[in-house]
Amino acid sequence: MSRLGDLIRLERTRQGLSYKQVARKCGVSDKYLMEVESGKRIIADDQARRILKTMGLKDTRAEAEFTLDDIAATVDLQSAMPALSSVTVVPDKKLTKKEKQGGDTENAAVAGSIWLDALANVLKHVPVYNAAMKEVDHRLLPITNGKIEGANPDKVYYLAAPDNQLRGFRVMKGDYLLVVPASGPADGAIMVLDTPYGKILRKTILMAGFQVMLQSYDDRCESEIKNLNELTVVGRCVRLEAEL
Prior knowledge:
Elements lengths: L2 H13 L3 H8 L3 H9 L6 H10 L6 H4 L3 H7 L2 H4 L16 H4 L13 H9 E7 L5 E8 L14 E4 L15 E6 L8 E6 L2 E10 L3 E7 L3 E7 L5 E9 L3
Parallel strand pairs: 1-3
Antiparallel strand pairs: 1-2, 3-4, 4-9, 5-6, 5-9, 6-7, 7-8
């Protein structure tokens, strides 16, 4: 099956449109559309986007955050299909005869999009920050039961390792570490600490007497012992993405 074809089929089915109706609106043959939806014909992202827009899709989240390839690679489109046969779409406004016939697709109103709504619930645009907390990139991560790695999806982010201070722990400068919120250090974990000079990464070892050992490991392993109240912990690293 074609994943982009699935997107088109899902939106067409959601609106209750026939092959002929969509084909006439988009200036293609209904045979071409059938072959795209069945996966017998390959369709490019820009062509798929044009067909979806011509059907009246106006949700700018797709343009701002997600490409069709992002959607096709992540959303389980097949799972959204069974319920569509019984769905009645209620438009935001009453369409004119001209809009119904496809003569004014720019002004045709569409009441959202099932696959974009589904996407918002299963995929999150997660920012990648440098040590100064400036966004330099992003990643798309799946949301499971409303969480990412057990945390609020809006609270997680990636931090690009600012140096090689954790090279001995297999974290190199420029590697991406997924960070979840934490108010205190975890034993044996790599934590993100806030300092007057920006964010730093250290492995933390909990000690008696409310003390914490901070470990770095570039050419050699080095340790520094701090009182717990001297640290400003902002997050715990739970995942590493490295370039080969």
